Amino acid sequence: MYLLSVLLLTVVLPLVSVAFQRFGAQNAAPLPFLLGKWFVFWGAGVRLFTAGLKQLFQPEFTARQIFHMTTDEALPLVREVGAGNLAIGTAGIVSLWKPTFVLPIAIAGAIFYGIAGINHLREKARSRNENIAMVTDLWVAAVLIAFLLLSARPQQP
Questions:
Q1: What is the rounded distance in angstroms from the CA atom of residue 100 to the CA atom of residue 50?
Q2: Cβ proximity of 45 and 105 under 8 Å
Q3: N or C end of the chain: which has fewer CB within 10 A?
Q4: Side-chain-side CA neighbours of residue 115 (13 Å)
Q5: What Rg do the C-alpha atoms of the chain give, in angstroms?
Q6: What does each C-alpha distance from 40 to 34, 70, 85, 92, 148 come to in angstroms?
Q7: Does the pLDDT value for residue 157 go beyond 70?
C-alpha cells in the first residue's frame, strides 16, 4: 500500500495531470508551469499532507518502517515532523486555487525532499520502504528544482 500511494502521488498523478492539462484540455500552458503546478499540488501538497496525517496519528509507522526505531522515545518528534508536513502539504493543496503559492511551496518542497532523499541515500542498510522514500524524494526534488530553474530564466517576449 505504501509503494502504491507514494508512486501515485509523486509520479503517476502529477504526470497524468500535466499530460491532461497540456494535451487534453484547451489550455496550452507552458510545460514548466504545468510541472510546477502539478508537482507542487500532488508531490508537495497531497503527499506531504497525507504523510503529515499519518505521522500525527500513527507515528509508529514512520519511526519503525522508515527509520528503524524500536522504542516510542522518538514518537513526539515524528508527530512534530508530521505537523510540518501537514502545514507544507496544506499550502501545496491550496496552490491549486492560489497559484501564487506554487513558487514558494516549490522552494520548500525542493529543500525538504532534497535533504530527505540525501539522508536516505546516506543510510547504508535501507529497508524497502526507505528505498521507496529515497527514490521518490529525490525524484520530486529534481522536478521541483528543474521547475525553479526554468522559472528563473528571463521571459522571452
A1: 22
A2: yes
A3: C
A4: 5
A5: 16
A6: 10, 33, 13, 6, 11
A7: no
